[in-house]
Amino acid sequence: MISRKLSSEKYAFYLLASLLASVSIFLHLWKLGVVPEGIHVDESSIAYNALSIAETARDEHGVLLPIFFRGFDNYHNPVMVYVLVPLMKFAGLEMWAVRLPSALFLLAASAAFYFLASFVSRNRYIALFSAFVFSLLPWIFPISRILVCGFTAMLFFLSLGFYFLFKSMCERSRPCALAAGIMLSLAMYSTHAGRPITALSLVIFVLSLNIALIKRWKIFAVFVSTYVVCLVPMIISVANSSSSMTNRFYGMRVWQDSSGVVDIAGRIFDRYCEYFGPGFLFISGDTNITHCTRYAGELYMFLIPFIIAGLYVFIRFFRNNPFYRFMLICLLLYPAAAVMTITHFHSTCCINGTIFWMLAATSGALFLWRRRRKTAILLAITIIAAAWEIPYYFNTYFGGYAKTCGWIFNSTVIDAVKRAKAYLAPGETLYISRYVFYPENTDAEFKPEFYSILLFLFKENPARYLERGFPSEKVSLYTGSEGVRNPGILIRLDRLILPLPDGRMTEKKNLDQAPPGSQLLNQVPTASGINFEIYHLTGLK
């Protein structure tokens, strides 16, 4: 009877796990290539570099199998590029394929978080629900559906790395120490923020376990040696070109344009407080619509009672439990990388916080569940709140957010390019008015950024691009009819809205007029009321 009861309990658990996993997988993969609509420049750049590696073993600048990939005078980290290589080889430059690794990494991170939460709570049901909520957090769900950086990969490597690190110390396991070293080193290859975040976490780990590490120094030595060996390629690459490590941070450092030490300290303190405020965590979240829908905070509100209870557990057992000590200090210092940037509410620079906020919620849920006779009403209220809040968030993500976020993913201009491209006859050229990108400056090759989107849309062969450069015979910057040397299609705006020195806006006709006799084929409206116009260039001399 006992074995039958255990068997049915195991069956119920696996059935529940399968159901929750199916819901999470569906939400992450549904309409992946079209929501959000358009292409972010980072997506096109990372994808094209991955295709170039697949076809030529070189990046877009001709560098053989680089560690870091230069794009827009910045650098992409290697994990997502190399993971994307086989997909680009077999699926080509398709949006669903470009975004798939980011979604899969978050699903994998959620599975890794399950093991980490199980280690902390020793309750597989609480760990299962925690992992499910983790996979659907507003903090990371929008990031999992685009490929702007390896944030979801970093979460996977951190979650699994911490799990193996904890397990190696408890079980004196060398294989776990080896796995932890590999995972946490890969977190440093995933994103720019992953480097300071991982390094700081390891310092906190050493301070938290202190005497325990001395007793297990051989196990810790395995971890450290593995971690350092895995970082050798990065160290060599940075030694040869320090800009790969510093360029991105240089333009957003917190002391930029500061008046002195006091001003810098004030900025850091203000930003630190912001990342613990209810506005960022539970109400409105990041101000960047790429990372946040603006319909919710970074965490769900129903998590508040669990987080408060979890913080109580961390504080109560701070002295006796080194792992609680580690998690509390990491939570207090989670925005350490974000506070060093000039921006406010930068959710991706502190995305590591998702792990520690959810570990706090997991510990709090266990605390409340063990006292469920006294906390039954509170638990019922949080369950009802979760049953409303999670569906509401996804309704807004696939509804209102999907309709309003397109501008940051260049959706309208990409739609215009796709429609114009469909009109092109063999041998014709697509001309794009210089005012399409106003007020941004772009050169004849559509640099500094939009060239990568055009290479993506035209599926330009990387070998050909490395040999001859940007395909101006396919796409050319239109500066007037005198520059048209080949028949083709023109994209222009019907009018411009320009800023005045006093801050007001004024409307003017587009100065790039189509040649006389050109035929208007189509119009693509924008949210501002301006239209993209698509012309067949006739009347050429």
Q: Number of helical runs?
A: 22
Radius of gyration: 26 Å
Low-confidence stretches: none
Tell me the major beta sheet.
5 strands, mixed
- From the N-terminal CA to the C-terminal CA, the straight-line distance is 92 Å
- The count of strands amounts to 9
User: What is the overall silhouette?
Assistant: globular
How would you describe the overall organization of this protein?
The structure is a single chain. The chain is of the alpha/beta class and 541 residues long. 58% of the residues lie in helices and 8% in strands. The strands form three sheets. It has a five-stranded mixed β-sheet, covered by helices on one side. The model has no long low-confidence stretch (mean pLDDT 92).
Key traits:
alpha/beta, 2 domains, 5-stranded mixed sheet, two-stranded antiparallel ribbon
Provide a short characterization of the protein structure:
The protein is an alpha/beta fold. It has helices spanning 2-29, 41-56, 78-91, 95-121, 124-135, 141-144, 151-171, 174-190, 194-209, 211-215, 217-230, 232-240, 243-250, 261-274, 278-283, 304-316, 322-332, 353-370, 372-404, 411-423, 450-457, 462-468, and strands spanning 69-71, 74-76, 429-433, 475-478, 488-493, 495-499, 505-509, 519-525, 531-536.
Give me the secondary-structure topology.
Elements: H1 2-29, H2 41-56, E1 69-71, E2 74-76, H3 78-91, H4 95-121, H5 124-135, H6 141-144, H7 151-171, H8 174-190, H9 194-209, H10 211-215, H11 217-230, H12 232-240, H13 243-250, H14 261-274, H15 278-283, H16 304-316, H17 322-332, H18 353-370, H19 372-404, H20 411-423, E3 429-433, H21 450-457, H22 462-468, E4 475-478, E5 488-493, E6 495-499, E7 505-509, E8 519-525, E9 531-536
Parallel strand pairs: 3-4, 3-5
Antiparallel strand pairs: 1-2, 5-9, 6-7, 8-9
Helix pairs in contact: 1-4, 1-5, 2-3, 2-21, 3-4, 4-5, 4-7, 4-18, 5-18, 7-8, 8-9, 8-11, 9-17, 16-17, 16-18, 17-18
